[in-house]
From TrEMBL:
Family per similarity comment: Belongs to the glycosyl hydrolase.
Name of the protein this chain belongs to: Alpha-galactosidase
Keyword Hydrolase attributed: yes
Organism: Nonomuraea mesophila
Sequence ranges assigned to domain Glycosyl hydrolase family 36 C-terminal in this UniProt record: 623-715
């Protein structure tokens, strides 16, 4: 640990895995001089980088400025791009000039380090604390806390953003957009001059959220190129941006989007930004590996094998009948399901999506004995029991809305916002509303010993204010939702929570501090899910991404797929079933049981190994897999998304294997149903199960079969004896 006054130490180096952050703390707000590849321990490097912190330049009348802007950029330092802090005292004190007071570095290289820097601006009477962390897994994150140190008077925070520099080699940008049923759709373009601004103003992360903003060298891919990536960890309004200024500086940054008047600091009050996560690596797989290791290292990360889920939504929707649900549970148990989740429709008056939200009582009209008959049957079959809630919402047609219309988030002028799914948002910042929801849900968890909550959030926060005062409340609502999850987890330590929000509309690293998995999308068409899961996996490991086998014809796209393609897609996630199994044939149930058995056999590998993707040159085909940490086992899939312009695919090069081991290729062949159909028959390696060196599999690869579209070929690699060397 080092503790010193500013000026006695100019530069600190934070190092872990393959990553390095070099931070200048000598004046004002910390400035990152290098974020990228790890340096060795030569002290000359620090002396060299310290000289970079002294460089200033200007152009065409611009003031001279530091080559490396602070992580909270200030105009007083010559920065004329997007400011780190926007705020004022009744129209004054609009510009800050923070002076460093002290800094503290704790931890050790490769074990996690934390650099805390403090600065003040006595003229505008503000104090700033900046925290920069680098985890042992090579994931950096930073945030800042602003305190009003005046004896009287408020300071209004309009915006507060953090940013990190990237070098000129970062020539391209990849980020994500999307919609309900097609979350996390990639978009890619050159790193143009100006600001590439991605704001989310939905009051939740959003189906169209940037999710991850990546800058990289030209033509970077999963296994090639140098990349820098940031993620804004906040479930409310947020911003992520890339900026290339007139001065040639490139930044990646993010923060919270604050609505007017939403953050006013009285004397002594503090506003803390969301965490901005940052990862550097060679190729996108290196970025995802760092995120996955970081999440898996958390004390609260799910440790037990991820149970096979049977969810009732697409099986019965709102049509709840005890005998039908017990029959579904029985069929699910026979194919190997381990967790039964009763979805929307169980509570007071809930026959469709027009009424009942907020009335968290079991409907006696459907459940005269409560949920006990179903819960007892489910537990008797050896399964856990889960239940759907939408705690932050309320229908107009509900007992709660009639009793407390003032608890609805609204702009405060006597009108209500536009409805979404026939519902409004409950103002959890009102203590009485918070307590009502908390006690209602907590009582049900206790009564039925609920193992798992599917926590839904099915509408945007539009005109989200306190109906009584007219004040904007998105920040307060987001914080209250976190507090509600935290308190339920405190009361019920064994409870698991899934983050669902019209599917994948609330997927970020802050809500994941409180939840155990996400529902990636309401679309379980396997063709769409291949894409959605591919990009969700950039940040989240497979065990945190719910992935279900649906009906033969997808409810959201009306496309029909084989059970093999549906199950092979769900295999590379947290496997589940969302299909009315009463309609399945005996042969389909038998094949589904085989896939469940395969998932159980391979889930330790799938949920602890390293996810890898092949940079396959033909967009019609994807190849990806999971390699064990010791590289002795792997599970891969070769997926045909479309027809190819080529008459025959090329070879599939399999990455991340041990070049000095030999691997036995084991095709996954199930007892019922054809896994794959091809025009030209199965390749010889599929039939013969050869033993091939890791070096050859990476450099040469396996010849890909010409699959018909929308199929997935799954195969294992198991380490055999090392390859024999020629004498």
């Amino acid at each position: 640990m080092s503790l010193s006054t500013a000026g006695s130490v100019r530069v600190h180096t934070l190092t872990a895995a393959a990553t390095c952050l070099v931070v200048d703390v000598s004046s004002g707000v910390p400035r990152v001089l290098h974020w990228g590849a790890r340096l060795d321990d030569d002290p000359a490097h620090e002396r060299f980088l310290a000289t970079l912190s002294e460089a200033q330049f200007g152009a065409d009348g611009l003031p001279g400025q530091h080559r490396h802007p602070a992580v909270l950029p200030e105009q007083s330092a010559g920065w004329t791009g997007t400011p780190g802090l926007e705020g004022h005292r009744n129209g004054t004190a609009f510009s800050t000039r923070f002076l460093a007071t002290e800094h503290e570095l704790s931890g050790r290289p490769d074990q996690g380090q934390v650099l805390v820097s403090r600065a003040v601006d006595e003229a505008v009477q503000l104090a700033l604390t900046t925290t920069i962390e680098l985890s042992a897994e090579g994931v950096a994150r930073l945030r800042a806390a602003l305190t009003n140190t005046a004896e009287s008077g408020t300071f209004t925070v309009d915006a507060m953003r953090l940013a990190l520099p990237v070098p000129a080699e970062a020539q391209e940008i990849l980020d994500f957009t999307g919609r309900h049923l097609r979350e996390r759709s990639p978009q890619r373009h050159p790193f143009h001059a100006g600001t590439h601004l991605r704001e989310g103003r939905r009051g939740r992360t959003g189906s169209d959220a940037s999710f991850l903003l990546v800058a990289g060298t030209t033509d970077f891919g999963f296994r090639r190129g140098e990349v820098w990536a940031v993620h804004t960890a906040w479930s409310g309004n947020h911003v992520t941006f890339a900026e290339l200024g007139l001065n040639g500086l490139r930044l990646l940054g993010g923060g919270e989007v604050l609505l007017p008047g939403e953050m006013t600091l009285e004397p002594g009050d503090t506003y803390t930004t969301p965490w901005l996560y940052a990862v550097h690596g060679n190729g996108l797989d290196a970025v995802s590996a760092a995120f996955h290791r970081h999440l898996r290292a958390r004390p609260a990360h799910p440790a037990s094998p991820r149970p096979v889920v049977l969810n009732t939504w697409e099986a019965v929707y709102f049509d709840h009948d005890v005998d039908t649900l017990i029959e579904l549970a029985t069929l699910g148990s026979k194919v190997g399901a381990e967790r039964f989740v009763l979805d929307d429709g169980w509570f007071l008056g809930r026959r469709d999506d027009r009424k009942g939200l907020g009335d968290w009582q079991v409907d006696p009209a459907i459940w005269p004995k409560g949920l006990h008959p179903l819960v007892e049957a489910v537990r008797g079959l050896g399964m856990q029991f889960g239940l759907w809630f939408e705690p932050e919402m309320v229908n107009d047609d509900s007992e709660l809305a009639r009793a407390h219309p003032e608890w609805i988030l609204a702009p405060g002028d006597g009108r209500l916002p536009l409805t979404g799914r026939h519902q409004h948002v409950l103002n959890l910042a009102i203590p009485e509303a918070f307590d009502h929801v908390l006690e209602s849900i907590s009582a049900l968890i206790a009564e039925y010993r609920i193992d798992y909550i599917k926590w839904d959030h099915n509408r945007d926060l539009v005109e989200a204010g306190d109906r009584r005062t007219g004040e904007a409340k998105v920040h307060a609502q987001t914080s209250a939702a976190y507090a509600l999850m935290d308190e339920l987890r405190r009361r019920h330590p064994e409870l698991e929570i899934e983050s669902c929000s019209s599917g994948g509309g609330r997927v970020d690293l802050e809500v994941l501090q409180r939840t155990d998995r996400v529902w990636a999308s309401d679309c379980i068409d396997p063709l769409e899910r291949q894409r959605i899961q591919r990009w969700t996996g950039l940040v989240l490991p497979a065990e945190m991404v719910g992935s279900h086998v649906g009906a033969p014809t997808a409810h959201t796209t009306d496309r029909t797929h084989s059970l093999a393609f549906r199950a092979a897609t769900a295999l590379f996630g947290h496997f589940g079933i969302e299909w009315d199994l009463r309609t399945a044939s005996p042969e389909e149930l038998a094949e589904l049981g085989e896939w469940v058995a395969l998932y159980k056999q391979e889930r330790e590998l799938l949920h602890s190994g390293t996810a890898v993707h092949c940079d396959y040159p033909d967009d019609a085909y994807w190849a990806h897999g999971v390699v064990s940490q010791d590289r002795t086992r792997a599970l891969f899939t070769f997926v045909a998304l479309d027809t190819s312009a080529a008459a025959q695919p090329g070879r599939i090069r399999l990455p991340a294997l041990d070049p000095d081991l030999s691997y036995r290729v084991e095709p996954v062949s199930l007892s019922t149903g054809a896994l794959v159909r091809t025009r030209s028959g199965k390749p010889s390696w599929w039939l013969d199960g050869p033993v091939i060196s890791g070096r050859a599999l990476q450099a040469v690869g396996l010849q890909g079969p010409m699959l018909y579209p929308e199929q997935a070929l799954v195969f294992r690699l198991v380490a055999d004896q090392p390859p024999q060397k020629r004498s």
